[in-house]
Every structure is written in C-alpha cells, then in structure tokens.
Amino acid sequence: MLIVVDHPLVKVHISILRRQETGTDAFRQHLTALTRLLAFPALQDLQLTPISVRTPLAETTGYRVQKMLVLVPVLRAGLGMVEGFRDVVPDTVVSHLGMYRDHRTLKPIRYYSNFPASYHDHPVILLDPMLATGGSAVDALDYLKAEGARNIRVVSIISAPEGVKKLEECHPDVRVYTAQLDERLNELGYIIPGLGDAGDRQFGTV
Ligand code: URA
Fold first, then answer.
1. Where do the annotations place 5-phospho-alpha-D-ribose 1-diphosphate binding (predicted)?
2. Which residues surround ligand 1 with Cβ inside 6 Å?
3. What is the complex's ipTM, to 2 decimals?
4. Which of 183, 195, 203 has the most ligand 1 atoms within 8 A of CB, as the residue to mutate?
5. Domains along the chain with CATH numbers
6. Which of 36, 105, 149, 188 could disulfide-pair with 144, CB 3.0 to 4.6 Å?
C-alpha cells in the first residue's frame, strides 16, 4: 500500500532536492530534514512499553520503544536517509544491504548484507530513496522476508508508478511511505521529473 506523505514542508524540501543547482552539502541536509518528516507517519504505530519516570518533582509514567528499530539503507543512496531516522528514533540498529542496478538489464544485483543475529521480531525500515523500477526494493524485501523479518515498511523520497505497481504486486502486505509520486520512468530507468541519481547527488559523483 502506498502512502504519499502530504505536508507543506515535505513539498518544500523535495523542491530543493529536485533543483539541479542544489549542491552536495545542501542536498544531504535537505534529504536528512525530509527523512525526519517521513519518519513520523512511517512510525505512527510504533509499539511502546510503559516505564516509570522520576521527574525532579514526582514519579510518572513514561514510554520507551518496545523493540529496537532496524534501519536498512539500500547502498548507496539509502545512506542519506539514515541520519534523519536516527535523529528522531533513539537506539536504532543500522543494517546495510548492498545492491546496485545493472545498467544494461536494470536488474538489481545484491553484493553485501550485514544484519544482527536476531532482528526478526523487530520493526524493519527499508530506506530506498528512489523507488524507480521497484526491482531493488522487491529484491531487498524478498531477502528480508526470507531471513525471517515480519514487520517491514519501505520509506522512499520519490516513487514512480511502475515501481509502486511492482511492489504492490510482489509484496502487497508492505506499506510504502513516500514524499512524492512522480510521473514515469524514462528509457534509462530514471524517474521523471525526479531528481537525477540520488547517490551521485549525495556523494558528488555526478
Ligand atoms: N535511482 C536514482 O537515483 N534516480 C532515479 O531516477 C532512478 C533510480
């Protein structure tokens, strides 16, 4: 299920990310700010455990996150979304999943993964800024489910209808939170209008 996060600040940050004049530093800053905004709706149902908290004046009830969140940035573009989540969620685990797109076939190739021993009961957030063909997100979800993850959601910055369709067909149980649903993919698999290559824009490899 696709959830397009509708907030005025989401629109502002995404406009700055889209502009071709936006340099690497500004791109990273606005990507982090935008990711923080996406973390709130994506974690609306986060389970909490009540705890006792002592203020300087009295004892009261507080809360902690019940199960540590596992963030899974898809390398390399997903890295830019980690900081925004970590800013707002205490004590996260970051597990990396290395995938790249074969430029000829547009198919995702998995080359690296690093997960804690038991994360299966934990909420898993797949961070994939550009949901283009949906190939890498589908492959990542196949992998996470095969590893036993049961509570997974995807957070992306810009999605293409083609990628959303593929994800809904292959993983109808997974919610996808996105800042923007764009028009289409071009013949090279880039999202139009999009923002270009999210990895290159973050790391200056344009
Ligand atoms: N990946 C990107 O970084 N940009 C696109 O437009 C599509 C895939």
1. 76, 101, 128-136, 197
2. 77, 130, 132, 189-191, 194, 197-199
3. 0.96
4. 195
5. 6-43+68-203 (3.40.50.2020)
6. 149
